[in-house]
Amino acid sequence: MKILVALKQVPDTETKIKVAADGRSLDPADVKWITSPYDEYALEEAIRTKEAKGAEVVALSVGGDSAKDVLKNALALGADSAVLLRGDGQGDAYAVAQIIAGYARDKGFDLILCGNKGLGGDNAAMGPMLAELLGVAQANVIVMLELGEGTFKAERETEGGSEIVAGNLPAVITAQKGLNEPRYASLKGIMAAKKKTIEEVDAVAATVGTQTIALALPPERPAGRKLEGDAVAQATALLQALKDEAKVF
Description:
CATH class of the largest domain: Alpha Beta
CATH topology of the largest domain: Rossmann fold
Oligomer: single chain
């Protein structure tokens, strides 16, 4: 079995974000970049499949030199090889899906795994678009995956419950929190990753479906205030504030 894992490089959730001078992108200065947490579940599932079935795991990311850190981490965790597709990995989901499809098509991948959404974009569109472009089956937001001889069965979350989806391989599967518990890289894995090279490929030309017109940080929240007096006075003041200031009713 041959598995491709698509990984996206995203800003750490603890990084203080700044808007770049163009007003349409993030200022990369002082940003700590990490693997999108949802993609970590996809990578872990691929490595577990490798350990159980002897699969070959290829890690892939779209981006520039900084995205190599994501791929080096994947190699340290257990991926067999890594590919950097040089292109805009932070842009339109449709364009990214085309770039990955352009690489993956005709390479014999039985399974393509990715997070159900990229942290920051959160549009949950790239995986389904990739499946459509490749003309293969798909299952999204999954929390359980079973692989058979050319088949898959997955459990996916729905509002108020879950459903079982089954189909034939090849397929694109997008992972959700709860699928597994991602591991940490071992010292042995980190040292082994240093000996591996990352294949670099120019991304295919892609059609951009959407463009960012403007990007702005949310306004700062006003400072809170403490209501004085006893419980009755506080309740009265709170009710008045909800009515006159918050306009709740």
